[in-house]
Amino acid sequence: MASRHTLAREVSVQGVTLHAGVPSRLQLLPAVSGTGIEFRRADLKGSAPIPALWSNVAETRLGTVLRGPDGSSVGVVEHLMSALAGAEIDDCIVEVEGPEPPLLDGDALSFLVLIEGAGARAQDEVQVLRLNRAIEVSSASASVKLLPAAAAEFHFEIDFPGTVIGRQAFSCAFDRETFRREIAPARTFGFLKEAEQLRAAGYGRGADLTNTLVIDGPALMNPALQRFPDEFVRHKILDAVGDLKLAGLPVIARFEGRKSSHALNNQLLRAVFADPANYRIGRA
If we measure between CA atoms, which residue out of 35, 34, 38, 30 comes closest to residue 7? Predict the structure, then answer.
């Protein structure tokens, strides 16, 4: 019988947030079985807990933002959610002192190491979601789908012509070892030509050449930071893993993304849950 897991003990870390560029303290605490992943804004006294669910996603333009019933929010949750998925943590209280978790190294590995340091404790039997049929959503230039499969898998394709990225594709099984080795280390990336405009609008103020792969047309400004030749598409899978964690339980399916975004990833989950005939929930 496969079990749900929570942390064996609480752990914390501090750093600077990606968009606001302000200090943030993150604390991860054990939670009782059935809690799921629940965010709490520790800096907003009396604010309501925010369950990490697809239905609480309020914004997706530059990261996945969750909003609670009282209007409080926490942004850029995808890297942490990805690490929690990769570590197979089902129940956890996430306390954040700030508008976002800290960016740390711009990857999921930083959070994964923190979680691994806490250890895991088995709880009740875990339930998983399986697809009864393929579900797909698309826009003019992008698409994302979930397909029935015996095990969780990810495939992603991106294309940034005229840049150092170009066309990239990557596929992998989703298990703890593969995630830690192939996906979790992939850092976030951004384009130099957009940086000033974003910062003027209050975004990307915590990104720099030590935590973000910065692209200037056909060149990468900080190549020493790069961990994989195809790190960009791997990071897209990292984001997708985090967005899919918002289903609220493990999804056993094949994910296929083509130029997909946080917005499409969330629309995909909304499409899945729009009709109970799309899926079934049962033992792992």
Answer: 30
What interhelical angle do 231-244 and 262-273 show, nearest 10? Answer: 30
pLDDT tens, residue by residue, 153-186 = 999 999 999 999 999 999 999 999 999 999 999 9
| Residue of 177, 169, 190, 165 lying closest to 76 (CA atoms) | 190
Task: Spot the catalytic one: 5, 19, 79, 262.
Answer: 262
d(CA 193, CA 216): 7
Domain that holds residue 102: 3-126
pTM: 0.97
Domain count, the chain: 2
- What is the DSSP secondary structure assignment for residue 180, as one 8-state letter? I
- 113 Cβ contact partners less than 8 Å away, ≥ 6 residues apart: none
Q: Which of 284, 251, 245 is nearest to 266 (CA)?
A: 245
Q: Which amino acid is at 166?
A: G
| φ/ψ (deg, to 5) at 48 | -80, 150
Integer-rounded Cα radius of gyration of the chain? 18
Other beta carbons within 10 angstroms of residue 263's beta carbon come to 18
Would residue 5 show up in a list of annotated catalytic residues for this protein?
no
- 110 shares a domain with 137: no
Give the chain's mean pLDDT.
97
pLDDT band at residue 267 under the 50/70/90 scheme: very high
Q: Which amino acid is located at 276 in the chain? A: P
Which residue type, as a one-letter code, is found at position 54?
W
SS3 264: helix
Residues 190 and 133 in one domain: yes
- What DSSP state is assigned to residue 49? P
Residue finishing a domain among 91, 126, 161 = 126
pLDDT digits (tens, 9 = 90+) for 179-217: 999 999 999 999 998 887 888 888 899 999 999 999 999
| pLDDT-based confidence at residue 250 (cuts at 50, 70, 90) | very high
